[in-house]
Amino acid sequence: MEAGYLYELPSGGRTGARLGRPVAPLAVRADREHFVGVKITETELIAVLTDLRAEVRSARHLPLATKDVPAVVEAVAQVVTDLAGGRERTHCLGISVAGDVDKASGLVRYNPFLEWRDVPLADLAASATGLTVTVENDVNALAVAEQWFGEGVGATTFAVVTVGAGIGCGLVVNGALVTGGYGVAGEIGHIPVSASGPACYCSGRGCLEAIASEPAIVRQARAVTGDAGLGLPGAVDLAHAGHPAVREVFAIAGRAMGRGLAALVNLVGPEKVVVTGEGLAAYDLFEEYIRETFNAQAYGAAGKCPLVIRPLPFEEWARGAAAVSLQSLFTSR
Q1: Is 183 in contact with 102 (CB distance < 8 Å)?
Q2: Any stretches that span the bilayer, and where are they (predicted)?
Q3: Measured distance CA(329)–CA(38) in Å, rounded
Q4: How many CB atoms lie within 10 A of CB 282?
Q5: What is d(CA 197, CA 193) in angstroms, rounded to the nearest whole number?
């Protein structure tokens, strides 16, 4: 309270017959501190400014002209200035980015979409913005957001699985985010689900991400149609129109997802799995195959685990980054 983060609500009076100080409920002073959260994608920055309750006050999208690290860091500094310029009580920035991230050091070990390796993003962003910076894997940050404000509220153990440019997973077990001994726990996209499947950029073969991510689906749809310019919207239209080979591409992706999700619930035993990401735009094409394979592969009572389909905008991913920075502010004290 002395630092101004909490304040007393009007007294509720004494409870029962006991003597002593009247009950004075406490509340968070939301405007005591502001936080910036930035989600970095291959093509743009999505940024939000939140208050101490992690409520979004404003948001920005900034296209990226290049994946070059200095240019991206400069863009982060620009969007921070746009959102927080002139606000004296903005000291913390959270950045979420896909791939192998070492939160403790702020190092992006590997991001396949930006083609980054060993980028000291926290240090670079701190120098560019003057803020205290926390860098986290994007799906882990989203899991924190879901734990605080979404489907994870009230659940002690749950998973967030994202489907889109990649396939990721954030795990909350017994109320705590699980990152594992090497910081890459939950990489469901690199579970092998097909011994004869395609090669993956991770150097493995038959990985879930190499079969069921958006790029993988587009790649297979182009192969079966012979249309080198086909994109995901066109593939979805062809499948909805009944093109048998393209429909089978989505069926294969759905079965692979079902195996991956079954492996997840068999290993971790979450109360629920939240499925989200831009790939949900095509969910109706592979939902049947996901659920059919999941039900066949989930062991015993694990098959009762609900799959919660929850479309979320990228602003929510950025809010997760802000929540991680808020969390870091208080856990570091």
Answers
A1: yes
A2: none
A3: 16
A4: 21
A5: 8
Q: What is the pLDDT of residues 228-258, one digit of tens each?
A: 999 999 999 999 999 999 999 999 999 999 9
Contact 27, 311 (CB under 8 A): no
Contact 124, 75 (CB under 8 A): no
153-309 falls under which CATH superfamily? ATPase, nucleotide binding domain (3.30.420.40)
Handedness of CA 151, 153, 158, 163 (dihedral sign): positive
Does 3.40.640.10 match the CATH number of domain 33-142+314-331?
A: no
Q: What share of the chain is helix, strand, coil (3-state, %, to 5)?
A: 40, 25, 35
Alpha carbon distance 25, 9 (integer Å): 5
**pLDDT, tens only, 192-231:** 999 999 999 999 999 999 999 999 999 999 999 999 999 9
DSSP for 164-183 reads: SSSEEEEEEETTEEE--TTS
pTM higher than 0.90 for the full model? no
Domains 33-142+314-331 and 153-309 share a fold: yes
Farthest-apart Cα atoms in the chain, separation: 82
| Domain extents in the chain | 1-32, 33-142+314-331, 153-309
66-109 pLDDT per residue, tens: 999 999 999 999 999 999 876 678 899 999 999 999 999 999 99
Nearest to 206 by CA among 220, 216, 192: 192
Q: What pLDDT is attached to residue 332? A: 58
Instruction: State percent of the chain over pLDDT 70.
Output: 89
